[in-house]
Structure formats: structure tokens, C-alpha cells
Amino acid sequence: MGKGCITVTKYFLFLFNLLFFIFGALIMGFGLWVLFDKDSFIAVLQESSDTVKVASYILIGVGSLSMAMGFFGCIGAIYEIRCLLGLYFTCLLLILIAQVTAGVLIYFQRDLLKHEMSSIIKRMITNYSGQNKTTEHAWDFIQRTMNCCGWTGPGNWSENLLIKNSTQNLYSCSCRNDSLPGSEVKQFGLCESLSTQPPVYATGCITSVEKWLLDNCGIILGICVGVAVLELLGMILSMCLCKSVVQEDYTKVPKY
């Protein structure tokens, strides 16, 4: 490989690793958001299941590893250190294999994941008390913003322990449909209906969640494919540069 090609490859690999470092920071940031978020659908799942917490720790770990790989990849590219380039290639290959494996598992276990999610939400609705709980407020936020009620429908709330044991005709305040006549609109808790038919949304939140996933499926798939292509490009560039380095010159590495 000519000297000019080596130089171009080196700086392309440096730029790629810089992007990889930024992607790693974004992944780690997303993992931290999943771990500490208190106002979304994630918060409902997180407090009811350890699976989401484990997933957030995995995201933080993968993001941290990606940042470290990006940093060492930059050093290996600029100073042409074969051992770092080889290590970088190996780590990228392992990450790519892990991503493909995770994608295949999620695809084939999607029905099990959907069932687990439904169980978590229905259990939360059954035990809903309207008190100041993170998961309850997060679920109220989801019902208000998505204009839905319950998981599969308003009927899920009939299993709530407080509603079931009350002599009043109660319903979830966050299910309140503003277009229907009824009592004053509240943000959370349980409200009393003035009529036998509560003024709530008719559709369940599972429909809204599935619609959101379908609407954003192309974006999610595009991001996954984009990351995979970048990883393959990084592997190719690192191998080309590694093969072109005949003898390592450690005198070029800055000493502190």
C-alpha cells in the first residue's frame, strides 16, 4: 500500500474512532437516562422489573467500552501501533457478534417480552393507589399524553383493588377524556364519576405504544444498520492499516 493511501486510511480511521467515541458517549447517556428517568414508560417498567435495570447497566457498560475503544483506536491509528489496532479489530468483531445475537434473541423472544411487559403493567394497575409513587406518576403521564386508558383497555382498571372495593364509581383521573362531560380534570389519582359511564378514553395504551414503535421502526432500524456499517468499516480500515505497518515506531508516541 502506498504512503499516500496509508495516510488517508490512518486519518479516516482516526475520524471513524472519533465518531465511535461519540456514539459510545450517546449509548452510555441513554443507559443513564433509562436508569434515572422518572417520567416516562421506562420508569414504569424499571420499578416493576429488574430486566430494565439490567439492560440499562449493559448499555452503560457497552457505551463505556465503546468510548475506551474509540480512544485507543485513535491512538493506534495516529501512532500506527499494531497491537492496539489488532485489539481494536477484535473488540469490534466481538461487539458486532453480540449485537447480532441480541437482535436475534429479541426477535425470537418478542412474544415473551410482550407478555412480560403486559404482566408488569397490569400488576401496577391492580396495585395503583394514587399516592406519590414514581411508577404511578409515570403511568399517569403516559395515559395523559397518549390519550389512552389501561393497557388493553379501560376494563383493566376494574381489577384495581381500590376501585373494586369502593362503593363509589371510581376511575383513573389520567384516563379522563376532556371532550366528554364529567368532573374536574386531575393529573393523577382516582376520580369519582358522576355517571355510570366514566368519561375516559376507549383505547388501551398498548395500541398507542405499538403505533409509536411502528411509526419509528424505520428510524430504529436505520440507526442499528448505520452502527453495524460503521463497525464493519472500522474493522476493514484497522486491518488495512495494521497490515501496512511493517515496523512500529514507539518514539512517535508522546511521553508524559
Describe this structure in words.
The protein is an all-alpha fold and 256 residues long. It contains nine helices and two strands, in the order H-H-H-H-H-H-H-E-E-H-H. The protein starts with a helix and ends in a 12-residue tail after the last helix. The model has no long low-confidence stretch (mean pLDDT 78). The chain crosses the membrane at residues 12-36, 56-79, 86-108, 219-242.
**Rg of Cα set:** 26 Å
What proportion of the residues form beta strands (DSSP E)? under 5%
| Largest sheet, spatial ordering of strands | 1-2
Form type: elongated
Which structural class do the helices and strands define? mainly alpha
Mean pLDDT: 78
Tell me about the biggest sheet?
2 strands, antiparallel
Helix fraction, binned, reads: 55-70%
Instruction: Tell me the distance between the termini.
Output: 33 Å
Which consecutive residue ranges, at least 5 long each, have pLDDT under 50? Answer: none
**Discrete helix count:** 9
Query: How many β strands by DSSP?
Result: 2
SSE sequence, one letter per element? HHHHHHHEEHH
Subcellular location: Membrane
Family: Belongs to the tetraspanin (TM4SF) family.
Organism: Ameca splendens
Membrane topology: Multi-pass membrane protein
Question: What's the arrangement of secondary structure elements?
Answer:
Elements: H1 3-36, H2 41-48, H3 50-79, H4 82-108, H5 110-126, H6 134-146, H7 161-164, E1 170-172, E2 190-192, H8 205-215, H9 217-244
Antiparallel strand pairs: 1-2
Helix pairs in contact: 1-3, 1-9, 2-3, 2-6, 3-4, 4-9
